Amino acid sequence: MDPLAPENKVTLHIKNMVCPRCIRIIREQFALLGIPVLDVQLGLVELARPLEATEKEKILLVLEDYGFELLVDKKLKLVEQIKTCIIDLIHHKNEKINTTYSTYLSQAIGKDYSTLSHVFSSVEKFTIERFIILQKIEFIKAQLDYEELSLGEVASRLHYSSLSHLSKQFKTITGYTPSEYKKQAIRDRLPLDRLKKADN
Q: Strand, helix or coil at 45?
């Protein structure tokens, strides 16, 4: 039996992978452990073969050292998949999607949105919509800090109906208008995977 045959492939679901740097760290650490990796994406690692018990122990330690976590519960895996899709879409894809967030998530994950919404809310105790809003706010903060896009461009990319809608939601969440935030150089950006329902 070929240990590297397709039927022996294993997918690991890893929590807190939120950026390209996370992917690089995972690749490097698995290579150092001598574990063959076929692919690494945000939240997912595809291995060429099942892990041995000693390898799994080593991986758990490495992941913990870097703030990651191996997920085994099906609901937790799905919630992390939802979060990863949203973070990747809002922060890392450089184009505006031509559909709704609910349709995008449903198509990307392969489950109807009502299922995704129910599981997410049952685990996180707040809605997918709330998580999307908080991610948008963090993206806006980044653009105010680095001035890569104008607020008009940001509003269009993030599906705001208008610049005033963006500004109003920003103030509701942060307590500042975008111009106040920029003027005061507040710099209170939050870790993308740690955003919760409470206004920050």
A: strand
Amino acid at 146: Y
- Domain total for the chain? 2
How many Cβ atoms are within 10 Å of 61's Cβ, its own excluded?
9
Task: Give me 35's structure tokens.
Answer: 């574990």
Contact partners, residue 66, CB within 8 Å, separation at least 6:
25, 29
Q: What one-letter code names the amino acid at 187? A: R
Identify whether residues 97 and 61 lie together within a single domain: no
The Cα–Cα gap between 79 and 75 comes to 6
The CATH number for 142's domain is: 1.10.10.60
> What digits encode the pLDDT tens for the residues 17-31?
988 899 999 999 999
79 & 162 share domain: yes
By the 8 A CB rule, do 44 and 3 touch? no
The residue among 140, 170, 177 whose CA lies nearest residue 157 is: 140
Q: What is the pTM of this model?
A: 0.73
- 141 with 158, same domain: the answer is yes
Residues 79 and 109 grouped into a single domain: yes
Q: How many CA atoms lie within 13 A of 67 on its CB side?
A: 10
Residue-wise pLDDT for 58-70, tens only, equals: 999 999 999 999 9
Residue 55 structure tokens? 């390898």
